[in-house]
């Protein structure tokens, strides 16, 4: 072995080879040691603040969506809803817009109850504004946003289906709550739901808005919203209302078509009554609906026209929940 | 007067003026007579074979549709249905494809019972073929075709709504009867309706075809159909069936999307039982459904692939018939 090598011509060469070989071996050991040091450490799941990377984390595109949920004074509902929404298929990430100014977020508690299916980011706000949820958050990686009010529960089945519908209508607000405006002979607009007179285009009713508190829309519209005239932002701040009406105006102007596509929900619930906070939503204020009519007319002034368009398309899921839900007498 | 004129210098000039004036008067009278002769004559409405031009006859574009109804051995149903369909809003013209070879059409009776809201054209066929209705009729002036089986009654409300839906999805077959294919481990396809196993893409069922016996589609697809491989025409002739499956293959290939959009009908009826002819439709033949599975597989061979795509979108009319048909518990 070594002696065999030493017999090679030139004792000098033999010693050089020996040194060379030793150096190579030492270098290899150092490299191996370095590689070992670079391996990711296996964290103990019970450590606070640990977050294990979900195995299925892929580059999000049109195949997943980001849930944006703004919350004020209903942390108990928020946490209940987060447990539900974190497991919706195709969800990429949750962004919680924390409007409880000066109050600590439940992030620590959230992390201590991990692991979670998706990352949840708590965005602490400095002012309690309705339009905080319409910021163009840098955390957003998906084309699609699902926006939910912090007291609204929609079943996973409904959300999975509505997301697939959004993918076929990506420039629209695809959601579960339709509303409309009507015009009156005086030229003044009024806002309402189905109890309000139909606009009178043939049979049945029409809707001209889909509320963003339970809807999918393209994340690009958040940037658009930031670009809107200052008067629009001021109106929303003045009323602490109407951000959804403004978004419908924006989308209708952008597409020249009805802003929304209404998907009829099978299971949608308002959990307001279940909160311990005693806080009931803004829509209970006496002036809520009058404000919304006011907003419609203000926005028409700001945009110098009425861009909202009517639709009477109502989408349901074929064969679900009842596999024969499309059956007819024929 | 004349004497006054005669006093003008030159007696010759006065006579010339007189002649000139006379000639002008005579010419004017002749012109007036000619104009009177060119006026349109007012026709008596009770004359046989007279057709008064409907006042609202405008250049048809995307705003109206042509009804194509093929008929065989059910003239009583045909006439009952024509009375209903002739009054559907936005109907431009009716084309009756007369498959009763050698039998006189009811055109004389039809005309004697005029006036009618729209023109009806009876296209006499030389051979009783299922695919006769898919000819590119020169009488077609509209972009949209409504194709109806001669035993199917769909309410005007449903048709008006479905037409408005077609206008939003003009490259699709928009209709009332969804069907699907499923693939099996052996690679052989099978045809069926909702009682057949769902294709297994998430919740609920899917459809991959909308039958053309009660549907709107773009008239351009008739020309496309004529251009299809001879094997397709031969298949339809061999089975006297499957023309609608072939059309769905055609549309799916053309769009790369699901061929159909299903509109859930409120009021659709099969009048088959009501016929005096004793003739019951082709779909009562024992081999009808087996033939359709056979057709699916043959078409896959002919087109070297399966172009049909699944959809689970079911469209209904918002607020009709029940103005609160979208209301939820929330």
From TrEMBL, chains A, B:
Record-linked InterPro entries: Glycosyltrans_GT2/GT47 (IPR052427), GT64_dom (IPR015338), Nucleotide-diphossugar_trans (IPR029044)
Pfam families, alphabetized: Glyco_transf_64
Keywords in alphabetical order: Disulfide bond, Glycoprotein, Glycosyltransferase, Manganese, Membrane, Metal-binding, Signal-anchor, Transferase, Transmembrane, Transmembrane helix
Enzyme Commission (EC) number: 2.4.1.223
GO biological process annotation, one example: UDP-N-acetylgalactosamine metabolic process
Record-stated family: Belongs to the glycosyltransferase 47 family.
Cofactor(s) recorded in Swiss-Prot or TrEMBL: Mn(2+)
Subcellular location as annotated: Endoplasmic reticulum membrane
Gene3D superfamilies for this protein: Spore Coat Polysaccharide Biosynthesis Protein SpsA, Chain A
Biological role stated in the UniProt entry: Glycosyltransferase required for the biosynthesis of heparan-sulfate and responsible for the alternating addition of beta-1-4-linked glucuronic acid (GlcA) and alpha-1-4-linked N-acetylglucosamine (GlcNAc) units to nascent heparan sulfate chains.
Protein name in the entry: Exostosin-like 2
Membrane topology: Single-pass type II membrane protein
Gene Ontology molecular-function annotations: alpha-1,4-N-acetylgalactosaminyltransferase activity; glucuronyl-galactosyl-proteoglycan 4-alpha-N-acetylglucosaminyltransferase activity; metal ion binding
Protein species of origin: Melospiza melodia
Main location: endoplasmic reticulum
Domain annotation Glycosyl transferase: ranges: 65-320
């Amino acid at each position: 072995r070594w002696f065999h090598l030493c017999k090679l011509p030139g004792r000098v060469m033999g010693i050089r080879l020996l040194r060379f070989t030793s150096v190579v071996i030492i270098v290899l050991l150092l490299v191996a040691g370095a590689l070992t040091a670079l391996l990711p450490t296996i964290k103990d799941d019970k450590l606070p603040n640990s977050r294990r990377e979900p195995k299925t984390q892929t580059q999000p595109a049109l195949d997943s969506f980001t849930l944006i949920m703004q919350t004020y004074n209903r942390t108990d509902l928020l946490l209940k809803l987060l447990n539900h929404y974190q497991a919706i298929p195709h969800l990429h990430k949750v962004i919680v817009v924390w409007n409880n100014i000066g109050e600590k977020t439940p992030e620590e508690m959230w992390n201590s109850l991990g692991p979670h299916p998706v990352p949840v980011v708590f965005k602490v706000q400095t002012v309690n504004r309705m339009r905080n949820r319409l910021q163009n958050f840098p955390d957003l990686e998906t084309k699609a946003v699902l926006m939910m009010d912090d007291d609204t529960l929609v079943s996973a089945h409904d959300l999975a289906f509505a997301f697939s519908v959004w993918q076929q209508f990506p420039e629209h607000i695809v959601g579960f709550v339709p509303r409309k405006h009507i015009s009156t002979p005086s030229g003044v607009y009024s806002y309402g739901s189905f109890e309000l007179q139909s606009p009178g285009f043939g049979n049945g009713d029409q809707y001209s808005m889909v509320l963003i508190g339970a809807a999918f829309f393209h994340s690009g519209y958040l940037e658009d919203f930031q670009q809107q005239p200052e008067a629009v932002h001021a109106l929303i701040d003045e009323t602490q209302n109407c951000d959804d009406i403004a978004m419908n105006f924006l989308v209708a102007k952008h597409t020249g078509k009805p802003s929304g596509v209404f998907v009829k929900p099978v299971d949608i619930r308002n959990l307001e009554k279940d909160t311990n906070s005693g806080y009931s939503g803004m829509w209970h204020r006496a002036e809520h609906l009058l404000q919304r009519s006011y907003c419609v007319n203000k926005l028409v002034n700001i945009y110098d026209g009425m861009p909202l368009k009517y639709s009477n398309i109502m989408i349901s899921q074929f064969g679900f929940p009842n596999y024969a839900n499309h059956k007819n007498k024929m």
